[in-house]
Amino acid sequence: MSTENFQPLDSGKVPRFAGLSTFMRLPVVRPDQVDIALIGIPFDSGTTNRPGARHGPREIRNQSALVRRVHHATGLSPFDLARVGDCGDVPLSPLDLNGALDTISTYFANVRRAGAKPLAVGGDHLVTLPILRGTVDEPVGLIHFDAHSDTYDEFFGNRYNHGTPFRRAVEEGLLDPKRMIQIGIRGSISDARNYDFARDAGIRIVFIEEFIARGAESIMAEARSIVGEAPTYISFDIDVIDPSFAPGTGTPEIGGITTREAQQMVRALHGLDIVAADLVEVSPPLDPSGLTALTGATLLFELLSVMTGASILS
């Protein structure tokens, strides 16, 4: 096997509208060939309202052709600092929710055994639960960007959906609630007790009003202090961003953060012990312009840059 790092196709030789569609125009490889595995999870069987996130990985691949090699703020390329490749999609049935969860967790356990760190693209937010099941042995910290806490107990009598993954993960001992922070939470809720589980468990919730009052730099300094130097998972739900910037998502909430603030916060993850990360809830059918998928692809590059050391503190 070659010891050289995989590189995106050269846009000066192969136009960005040409060639096979892969994450950032990287080659399709096996997890045992890379340090960081880009993995699609085309799954939205946990969606409670507007579907379409199953199409997220494919369209983010398409839009990621617009992502270039070098981070402009540092002059560094993540592809020079680590071996990165597109490891394809988790093979899933859209007709079997519980079976899909088992398949995802087994897939990510194999990725871990191969020695790669996963950077996953969903899919609805339920995918975070089986990723954690396959990736961690003990509770890890979490920095969670989202409009919603996703710590409900159930919807329609079902305990496994995109509104419940973090409650299940705490209950299963996958996440340490004292090392969890949720940023950007907002929107009307169905019951005044919706946040009771998170608060009682010790999860730090940053509502959008506090975020606006304090600013991204202050919030991220607190987030870093909460997770510390121990292993941490990063989960980025595209609906944390205001729908004027990213309308293609299943549960949009107005009054969200800007894309610039999103980049600033992701860059502030630099230097943390990130065990895995995901970007979820991009629903391309709800945004034919492709803007939401492009936003997702750009933030995927920011996450990759953080994980490889090609980024900087905001």
Task: Describe the protein in words.
This protein is of the alpha/beta class. The protein is 31% helix and 17% strand. The chain has ten helices and eight strands. The model has no long low-confidence stretch (mean pLDDT 96).
List keywords for this structure.
314 residues; alpha/beta; Arginase, Chain A; eight-stranded parallel sheet; 8 strands; 31% helix
Task: Draw up the topology in text.
Layout: E1 36-41, H1 56-63, H2 78-81, E2 84-89, H3 97-113, E3 117-122, H4 128-135, E4 140-145, H5 165-171, E5 175-185, H6 196-201, E6 204-207, H7 208-214, H8 216-227, E7 232-237, H9 259-267, E8 274-280, H10 291-308
Parallel strand pairs: 1-2, 1-3, 3-8, 4-5, 4-7, 5-6, 7-8
Helix pairs in contact: 1-10, 3-4, 4-5, 9-10
Can you tell me the residue ranges where pLDDT is under 50 for at least 5 consecutive residues? none
* Main sheet properties: 8 strands, parallel
Number of strands: 8
| Structure annotation, total helices | 10
Calculate the terminal CA-CA distance, rounded to whole Å: 37 Å
Q: CATH-wise, what's the superfamily? A: Ureohydrolase domain
Q: Averaging pLDDT over every residue, what do you get? A: 96
Portion in helices: 25-40%
Structural class: alpha/beta
Quaternary structure of the protein? single chain
- Number of domains in the coordinates? 1
CATH architecture: 3-Layer(aba) Sandwich
Summarize the structure.
The chain has one domain (23-308): Arginase, Chain A, CATH 3.40.800.10.
